Amino acid sequence: MFAIALRQVFRHWRTSLGAAIGAAVGVMAVVFMNAVLTGLTRAVISNVIDMNTGAIVIQREGFRVDGIEDLSRVVDVALLPQLQALEGVRAATARMVFDGVLSDGQASAPVRVVAIMPESELEVCPRRVDLELDRPVTSGALLGRELAALLRVQPGATLSLFAVQPSGRHNALDVVSQGRIDSPIPFMNKRLVTVNLSLAQELLRTPGKATEIALAVTESPDSVAERAQALLGPEFRVETWRQREPRSERFVGTTELLARVLLPRSRSPSIHNRS
Question: Domain residues of the chain, as ranges?
Answer without folding.
Answer: 2-50+245-262, 53-241
